[in-house]
Amino acid sequence: MRSHRVASPNGARDDVYYWLRDDTRTDPDVLSYLKAENQYTETQLAPIQPLIDGLYTEIVARLKQDDSTVPVRYRGYWYSIRFATGQEYPIVVRRADTPKHAPLAEDEILLDGNALASGLPFFQLGGYEISPDNRLLAYTEDTVGRRQYRLRIKDLSTGTLLPDVIENVDGGIAWADDNRTLLYVEKDPVTLLGRRIRSHRLGDTGGDALIYEEPDESFDLTVERSKSERYLLIASESTTSSEWRYTRTDDLTFDFKVVVPREEDHEYQLDHLDERFIIRTNWQALNFRLIEVPESRAADRTQWRDVMAHDPEVFIQDFELFRTFVAVSERSHGLMNIRVQRWGEAPFHLTADDPTYTMALGSNPELDTTLLRYVYTSLTTPGTTYEYDLADGSRVVLKREPVLGDFDPANYVSEFVWAPARDGERIPVSIVYRKGTPLNGTAPLYQYGYGSYGLSMEPGFSSSRLSILDRGFVYAMAHIRGGQELGRRWYDAGRLEQKWNTFNDFVDVTDHLVARGYCARDKVFAAGGSAGGLLMGVIANVAADRYAALVAHVPFVDIVTTMLDTSIPLTTLEYDEWGDPNEAAAYAYMLSYSPYDNIRPQPYPAMLVTTGLWDSQVQYYEPAKWVAKLRRHNTGSRALLLHVNLEAGHGGKSGRYEHMREVAREYGFVIALAEGASIGEAP
């Protein structure tokens, strides 16, 4: 074995599998190794391949193949996305608005993802923006999976692509009012963070002007138009700090001004309405508040006036502006709700129908309307798009996501329970199972968790999940610390020097569900992805006896090595989440839970680990090294499997149906083990 000494200011560690790192993704030895891993996984799963194939057929059969989204009106057109039967990628269409009672206009295809993806092993549409005069379409595409997008422009009057092509950009774009100039985010080619805002004038081959360059490598950039259409906005954001800039959409000098100068631990987001900014801010408000301030006095906090005051029990997540009202996504008691408030009046909440659920603001691009679009879903209710009319209080269902076959929500039961943590906290847990599933300690459990970056796990519907529920599984989503289900304090209690709470919470939820009879002690399965994969890695080391098998998607498992290497994409942005390992205390704390560094001789649960060769967020070599080291120390006989998608990145395979093959493999793995199958032996 080739050993590598990983140095740091606080010590050095030997890494015998470091040779698997290949930043070019072209080393023949590395590629041969990864292909051999795939072959080994295929061989081990061969006995259950008929089950996997059957699950894929079953899952796809529930999908409406010729589906489409609810049309959204914007600047005189109705925009929607549709899927054609048997095709993998979305088709973006629009139709011109017509007078009431007049025949509908014909759909105009703006982007056909299937045509754009033709002949490519991977394709993903980033974002798209229509020029203010509705004649040009700027869009971004990724053909590798690394989220380094290519910017193209299409003339909608002729259907032709303009010769302008810009590489290595972020997904977001913003047009200026001249319909000839747009702003985009140029990525750092190494860290892949948004580093510069440039302006591009159509047809200009002389180089794009630099508008703003972010000096701090822990910040990322985005660009957008305000909903009022008056301003172009640049956001600089780190994990715990924000700074926004603005200039008029008709100002081609792009003289951006700072809204509120950045300061440590002040996060804010904003939009514009009439002559004022509406700002979501955590200044003197741990769970955020919504304020309004005259645009010319935005930095003067004596001028800030509460629209929605801070509430220690309610976390303000997001907001949407309208001429006559504002709508807010907020979290209370672990669940996402929507609060609506007419300007100057008392707020009210929209109602929910399930014990555990989520509401989310839908697509609402127009200011001058009394109609609010929102999406409601639960573990038993497919995503449902509602339109609420503030003029008369009526609510209309615009669409409920179709589930083909014999699906009936009445056949499933959801619960929202609280599990005791070892330190006295209570952890919210969303649960779903098929009616009639015995809760007497005999059912298999599939438990999911994440618990990082303040990302809350939404208890939403999944038609593919029916395949495990119908086979007697109880499914549980553990809302552990590190997310924001219980507000900002829940996030702060699961990051930096309190990160162990995340891992302990997950295990404590497992123990509670076993003790309450939701599942059999020897049939507990768990899954997580990315930072949730780190969670799987930690519990594999410290609670291996609790789990029959683990599924870890694109797992972030070599945290210390990665955080010491600022050349790895996104690393510097992560210091406020995990800590800076160049500091002795942070290094020691991170090392205490790092999955790769804490592997030890013991019987490990069976594992299915997935990664993508072109992953820009968790490099493929982390899970590859992790699995190799696990096999070296595993004293048990349960198989440890690695599948490497050689043509994809962090999100797995592109395409509507190809992704379902990955889901079928995951479900086949846990179902077979729950039914007593033996999937190979660890080498």
Automatic annotation (TrEMBL):
Recorded superkingdom: Bacteria
Annotated Peptidase S9 prolyl oligopeptidase catalytic domain residues: 461-671
UniProt keyword annotation of Protease present: yes
Record-annotated Peptidase S9A N-terminal domain positions: 8-399
Keywords: Hydrolase, Protease, Serine protease
Family: Belongs to the peptidase S9A family.
PANTHER family (alphabetical): PROLYL ENDOPEPTIDASE-LIKE, PROTEASE FAMILY S9A OLIGOPEPTIDASE
Protein name from the UniProt record: S9 family peptidase
